[in-house]
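Supplementary Methods S3. Complex input for the magnesium ion-bound model.
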Amino acid sequence: MSLFRAGMVVNQRHRVVRPLGAGGMGEVYLVEDLLAGGRLLALKTVRSAAENPATLDSLKREFEAMTRFRHPNLAGVYDFGRLAGEEAHFFTMEYVEGADLLDATETLGVGELCSLLVQLCRALEYLHSRGFLHRDLKPSNILVAGGGTPSPTVKVLDFGLLSETAGLREGGEAGGTLHYMAPEVLRGHPAESSADLYSLGVVLYQVLARRVPFDGPSPEEVVRQHLHEPPPPPRDAGRGRSLFAGRRSVPGAYSPRALRRRHPGRGRPAAPTRTTSTC
Ligand SMILES: Nc1ncnc2c1ncn2[C@@H]1O[C@H](COP(=O)(O)OP(=O)(O)OP(=O)(O)O)[C@@H](O)[C@H]1O
Ligand SMILES: [Mg+2]
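Predicted complex, serialized as structure tokens:
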């Protein structure tokens, strides 16, 4: 059941316009900020953070850092707080009017896809160069504004903040994110920037082939494939056939492993560092 209905005013400040969606952490609403002339924002509820004071402190600290981020391909974040009368917290962020990466790329050609990929890499490079990781890169966390126009803009969501709380989710990573996780993370090592590049490779593969590279009937099977199997060539799947007709070298370059082959942190488990991605 939804936490809020249209017309409700949350914390005496945000009037709910409509729900935008729901994910592992809570619900996302389109709201008007009544203290900012009705500016439209996205408000995301974060239920599990309230249960663990240490996580909450870390969330607040990280959130404060993120409010200072300014990048055209990262959705800006604004406020973090407790929902009055609820065992839940929330944060507000830039409202992105658009579709998620999978929907937005359904009919795009390779050239337009490359432009979106470059924007994605720029967003990751910005995060990594400031010592942050995304850790939950997947199509629902990548929106494309201005789809159908000559210059669509990628907006990456949920960076940093949700990675801190991901471990608290019921069901953990099996809630879909497993398909995008790097092998070393699945083995229990701390993520570093190369893990984001692996997820980026999975996302890109999915955009091209219209299916994830590793899938199966159980989480264990998906993990096994991540660890031991090469991805099936995207040229053999879905749109890959038409996109790559006559292009021999492209599919390999898009594989999750190849994308980060030259990355300095590859395979070396370590705390997040201020390394830069090499897209
Ligand atoms: N800033 C935003 N602007 C517009 N729509 C948004 C915004 N943030 C989220 N949404 C929409 O709400 C949906 C749910 O987002 P949410 O982040 O809760 O779920 P998720 O990405 O599927 O899972 P996760 O909890 O792992 O992030 C998204 O798929 C997107 O369509
Ligand atoms: Mg999300």
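Residues 10-94 form a domain with the Phosphorylase Kinase; domain 1 fold (CATH 3.30.200.20). Strands lie at 9-10, 14-22, 27-33, 39-46, 77-82, 89-94, 98-100, 142-145, 153-156.
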